[in-house]
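USER: If only I could read backbone structure tokens as easily as an amino acid sequence. It would mean a lot if you studied the pair and described how this chain folds. Here is the record:
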Amino acid sequence: MHWSDAVNSSLPCIVKIDTPTGHGTGFLCFSNPAKSMVAIATAGHVIHHADKWMEPIRIYTHDGSKSLLLKADERHITMGNQSDSALILFSKDQKLFENTPPLPLLDQEYVLRVGTQVGWIGFPTLEPDTPCFFSGMISARKDDAYLIDGVAINGVSGGPVLYVDEQEETRVVGTVSAYRMNKATKDTLPGLLIAQDLSLFHDVLTHIRTVEKSE
């Protein structure tokens, strides 16, 4: 599969997240069979301030054709205690996503090898209303994150890091968390993108599915 195919198939799930203090990126990662709940995955720092101060959050579809304003009592946010991850849960009755399957997550036990090519999508501040694609190679696995030879511009935080497997299926392997710049000299040299793993998302979604089966 060419990267353009992976991007085009993923775009319907990509969202821009606006808060009173800035914006970031997220993606649809869950929609329950009962059609009553959806979950948007993003980076914790994108919505931490809005969550703490119970501020509204507006979510836009990738092309800006639809948007949804979520007040504090219209959403449930789960933040990672030790990771820069967050899930926004809200009612599917809001109809932000109609007939859009969520982006599949890579299995939790599967770890990509160094040298694997990945790509990511987000809304950089340079073009805040345009979803942009970036790509690079995994440089290392450290703790609960991947270090990637690639850039992360403000606004792209929370965007999905994508991997195309041997069956040409596109899966999310992490979320854009930060960009670690190389400041070894006075000049700012190319650095490394940090992609948070999917632990929080797997844990929360597994819990939701378990509760639904028991009901």
About this structure: The two ends are 40 Å apart (CA to CA). The first helix runs from residue 3 to 10.
